[in-house]
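Quick log. Single chain, no ligands specified.
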Amino acid sequence: MIKFIRYCLPSCFVVTLGRKWRQARAKFGTASRILHIVFLMESPVPSALSRFASAMPLVAALALATPLKAQEAGISVELNAQEQVEAGCKLSFLARNGLDGDIAKAVYETVLFDGNGQVERLTLFDFGTLPAGKPRLRQFVVPGLQCDALGQILINGASTCEAGELGAAACLQGLTLNSRTDVEMMG
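-> predicted structure:
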């Protein structure tokens, strides 16, 4: 049994649940202003399906109404690249402040581990100003370090966090770490 529900919203997309999404796409197209939800269920109890289907437009509307900022609240730090330079290993971090206010100064205590998991050094990375809602690229050259010897980076805590009304804990609030390199980020 295929049940189609059309529901208009100011800005919607096509959501399809089930195996026969091509049928739904052929019937409705990819109109940008209509949300199509397709349910494929063979249920001996049609009333259960109809109750489920009737609630879905409300669920979809609530999901679309949730602001992205709430989903991204916190600080995210990504190790974006590493490059061997003459002086040492240059680490490039992409930092995003998803909080409601600017951070005037963020300095993170950072532990660098080698490929065997042993501590190579403990250092401070000064990320400086992190304006709300704007990504910032910060680069640090670690003298004497070979990039290929680096195994993991641990953000041990915030040595300095000047965040005004957000408070001193803002630099660690919702801190998410990831890496686009072979080096693992931990926190």
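The chain has three helices and eleven strands.
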